[in-house]
TrEMBL record:
Keywords: Endoplasmic reticulum, Glycosyltransferase, GPI-anchor biosynthesis, Membrane, Signal, Transferase, Transmembrane, Transmembrane helix
A molecular-function term among this protein's GO annotations: alpha-1,6-mannosyltransferase activity
The protein's name: DUF2029 domain-containing protein
Membrane-topology descriptor: Multi-pass membrane protein
Signal peptide: 1-29
Keyword Metal-binding: no
Pathway recorded for this protein: Glycolipid biosynthesis; glycosylphosphatidylinositol-anchor biosynthesis
InterPro entries, sorted: PIG-V/Gpi18 (IPR007315)
Secreted is among the record's keywords: no
One GO process term, biological-process aspect: GPI anchor biosynthetic process
GO cellular component: mannosyltransferase complex; membrane
Amino acid sequence: MKVLAIWLVSRVVTTSLVLVLASVQGQNAWTQARPDYAAFATMWDGLWYNIVGVGGYPSALPLTADGHVGENAWAFMPGYPVVVRLLTVLTGAPWAPVAVFVSVVCSLGTALLFFRLMRRVQPQSTALFSVVLFCVAPLSPLLQFGYAESMQLLLLTLALLLVLERRYLVLVPVIAVMALTRPSGLAFALFLALHVGYRWYSRTRDPFPVREAATASSVAVFSGVMGLAWPGIAWLVTGSITAYTDTELSWRSAYIGYRELVPFAAWFQSGVWWLGAPLGIIAVLALIIAFTLMMFSPAVKSLGVDLRLWVVSYALYLLAVFFPQSSVFRLLMPMFPLVGALARPRNVVYRVVVTLGLICGQWGWLLLCWGVDGADWTPP
């Protein structure tokens, strides 16, 4: 009941902020001026999910005037839009409110599971405050927008909990759906491989039977296969082996033009684009060092080995393939177990200040990334 109460209060706060911003939103590419909540909450990529849900994926990749693959629906995986589409067919309700409904329900499920996850590594008070921080985090408006993140976080939280409970076989359907909801299969495969390696290393104090090791390893391989499934499906449908990666690269072309996907290069390319050379490269290296030091801090170590391995695995995945721009904040959401470290101090003043600070962060993110001001170049 406490988790439900936290979730309800946080949704009231976030909804209030969103409605205030919607009331001053001008006409834009997605909505009329002063849109209602559902319309405002399904802007930006919400339109792409609508396109997928209603029309599916193109068999022929769109090309730009200079012959490069243009932005298209293959960048958006089918898990979330399929669920929304099924509900619209069953209920006859319009897309926008159903998309919001699915995200809201998933956010509640995530909050409930996240408490159980944190309770395995933190005291009850810290676990509850972790839920508070998760629910009021700067990007928590996405938990009630027409994006796939809420559904992904629900599946990811369940998957992490199953790993901590060592219920490896049950992971299979969860991974299958999660990998087709947001790109996550490869990162989760790396995490499971590291998990298996650590369990084997520590088997003298924590027995790791051969049968259990074989099961966990097999699930890690399955996750890797699922991580490659969507690019494979795009290849089969379009006839282009690089259909998915070319589509993803089209989104960064506005920044650095069309370039080949070179693993671990995009962050440095972004650093140079934002800050110039050599400052951009130095900034990325400093960020990597700071992240590494943070992972060995006492607060983060309190999360336990497995949750830290997930955060590191996902960070390596982002470092390998993602080009940082304004949507980097959204892409960092799967690292949410880190709020468990932020929740550790029990001082009441600290907890109040952090909570209010994160709520202010919501307003900042809404203004910077979600609200549209003319030719907005800061996509969420």
